[in-house]
Amino acid sequence: MTAHDQWNQSKDDPLGLGELEAIDPGYDGWSDIESALLTHKNSKRSWQRAGGWLAVAASLVLVVSISMRNIESPATNTPNIASVGESSSAAYDSQTDNVGALIGLSQNMENQVKQLRQETSSMPAESAIYIAELEDLIAQVDNELSFTPDSIDLWGQRVNLLLDLAQIYQQQWQIDYGRMAAL
Amino acid sequence: MMMGSGFDIHLDEVTLAGAKRGDTRACEKIYRSYHGPAYTLAVRICKCRELARDVTQEAFITAFKRVPQFRGESPFWGWLRRVVINHAISSLRKQPRYDAVEFEEYMAHTSGDQDGLGRAMDLSQALEQLSPEDRLVVWLHDVEGYKHREIAEMVSKTESYSKTRLNRARARLRALVTNNDERGSLVSNNGAAQNATA
Question: Using CB atoms within 10 A as the burial measure, which of A148, A183, B61, B82 is most buried?
Answer without folding.
Answer: B61
